[in-house]
Amino acid sequence: MGRPSTLAATKPYEDLFYQSDVSNDTFLSRTECRNLWAIFDADKNNYISKIEFELKWTFLDLDHKEHAPIFFEELDKNFNKEIDSAEVQQICFFFDDDGDGFISKFEYDYNWKAFFSA
Ligand SMILES: [Ca+2]
Ligand SMILES: [Ca+2]
Ligand SMILES: [Ca+2]
Question: What is the 8-class DSSP label of residue 104?
Fold first, then answer.
């Protein structure tokens, strides 16, 4: 992955945040948040399938791998077995607690742990 050694102590879900924060201001804009979830869309068809989600979750070494299918079901609001751009927008909106259009690292940590816990 070529991860800088200074980030060696960060957890995989945090790496995902920093990797997606291309403006490097410790906030995810809506675009950066969408791009974070686009990482999961392996075939780039704008939909995240359950298989894509599970494989990427495992590949990224994110926590609670055995629950990845459940996390997928929670994100797939209309239960059509795909996470589409509207559903990604909902995730990004959910993570932005103060509604300022940006997900701070605090908001990210707080919501990630709440949402993706066993
Ligand atoms: Ca896809
Ligand atoms: Ca869906
Ligand atoms: Ca915010």
Answer: E
Give distance in angstroms: CA of 62 to centre of ligand 1.
19
DSSP percent split of the chain into helix, strand, coil, nearest 5: 55, 10, 35
Cα 70 to ligand 1 centroid, rounded to whole Å: 18
CATH code, 10-115:
1.10.238.10
pTM, rounded to two decimals: 0.90
98 C-alpha vs ligand 3 centroid, how far in Å?
5
Nearest to 55 by CA among 43, 40, 45, 67: 40
Contact present, 94 and 36 (Cβ < 8 Å): no
pLDDT of residue 109: 98
Residue by residue, DSSP assigns 16-72 as HHHHH-TT-SSEEEHHHHHHHHHTT-TT-SS-EEHHHHHHHHHHTT-S-GGGHHHHH
- Per-residue pLDDT tens over the stretch 24-46: 999 999 999 999 999 999 999 99
